[in-house]
Write a structure and sequence with these properties.
17 strands, eight-stranded mixed β-sheet, FAD/NAD(P)-binding domain, binds flavin-adenine dinucleotide
Length: 331
């Protein structure tokens, strides 16, 4: 079957574009290499005999809403009960509360609840890695690691830009030099995240977030106090870009050992179990000044994601929104 549009990536950008297309009667297929829907909006659960099951948001912790188009979607999510307002600020490592009057929102049960909801009506294939594509007979043939082929008229790449460029290279597609340079200049910071199951209550006050001091730790969430659906005290610890770069090749155990004293100092809890996740492309540090890019050579390809309109959930939404509407305007 040929769909009108094939989207690589079930993150906020891909899901937004897919919903807009689907709602306008344009057939769309979404492929994502990850097991869970949502890309960098990610939630994980694991257990320990002493604490029971912990649930951890371990990518985006919350999102802000400035764009009116995003606000309409978020208002609907609030109305149907999948999103809550979280907070206008958090404490820092000195214990001072920093309020900046910017509303921050979260998934009511967890962050992934939002992307699962967005995916509910879509033709979506997780654990499906796109390996290359070629333009033949006025359509894209999109090949996956498990040797399936998907056919479509339009291709949307929402993977982090270096991954999209690697796919183009593998496919033998050369972009014009302006676009190639623009995309090649986008850089991302890595982020190593430690998820820890803990005994006892943390000293982090409600609503459960703490800004780090930027040395080793950049952020801590007490997911229990955040109010997501977790039985156990579950900490998500984001490390700074410098720590992440310097310790990228270290084992999980070594990373844990480097952080444990500081975590105890900041939260007062004892860790009984942990997991580590390494985001190579956590957030872009330089942004392209358009909400998406497009080429029609050899066939229509749209490039989107948070590198195009802001290194955050809202930026990915805006990019996906504009791509969806750009494709609609060609029908
Ligand atoms: C640790 C961390 C903390 C963050 N905190 C915040 C925060 O508090 N607030 C905020 O607003 N933002 C935050 N962000 C940023 C936010 O998560 C992102 O800006 C946003 O989710 C990006 O969405 P996206 O759709 O552009 O990309 P992604 O979510 O990365 O989606 C791209 C998808 O493409 C898939 N993909 C890549 N290559 C292939 C392939 N070959 N085949 C198939 N699929 C492929 C990937 O699996 C991925 O799911 C954070 C990010 C991280 C990592």
């Amino acid at each position: 079957m040929i769909s009108d549009c094939l989207i690589v990536g079930s993150g906020m950008c891909g899901l937004t574009a897919a919903n807009i297309l689907h709602d306008n009667g344009i057939s769309v297929t979404v492929l994502d290499k990850g097991r869970g829907i949502g890309g960098r909006i990610a939630t994980r659960r694991f257990s320990h005999e002493m604490t029971g099951e912990g649930v951890f948001d371990y990518g985006a912790q919350y999102f802000t809403v400035r764009d009116e188009r995003f606000k309409k979607w978020v208002d609907k999510w609030i109305e149907i009960g999948i999103v809550n307002k979280w907070s206008e600020g958090f404490i820092n490592t000195e214990g001072d509360l920093k309020i900046d009057n910017k509303d921050r929102y979260i998934g009511r049960e967890n962050m992934r609840q939002i992307t699962k909801y967005m995916a509910k009506d879509l033709d979506l294939h997780q654990s499906t890695k796109v390996t290359k594509f070629n333009w033949e007979d006025d359509r894209w043939n999109v090949l996956t690691e498990d040797e399936n082929v998907f056919y479509s008229k339009n291709l949307v790449l929402t993977s982090p830009v270096p991954q999209s460029l690697a796919l183009l290279k593998e496919s033998g597609i050369n972009l014009d030099s302006d676009l190639q340079n623009k995309l090649q200049n986008v850089e991302y910071e890595p982020c190593i995240v430690l998820m820890a199951l803990c005994e006892g209550e943390t000293t982090i006050p409600k609503p459960g977030g703490m800004w780090g001091n930027g040395k080793q730790i950049s952020w801590i969430t007490d997911n229990f106090k955040k109010g997501i659906k977790t039985d156990a005290v579950s900490l998500t610890v984001h490390t700074s870009a410098t720590f992440s770069k310097n310790n990228w090749d270290e084992s999980n155990e070594s990373i844990y050992k480097k952080l444990i004293d500081e975590i105890f100092e900041l939260t007062g809890v004892k860790i009984v179990g942990y997991q580590v996740h390494k985001w190579l492309y956590s957030q872009p540090v330089n942004i392209i000044d358009s909400t998406f890019e497009f080429t029609e050579n050899p066939g229509p390809i749209y490039f989107g994601g948070d590198a195009f309109s802001g290194p955050r959930v809202e930026g990915a939404f805006v990019s996906g929104f504009d791509i969806g509407n750009a494709i609609i305007s060609t029908y």
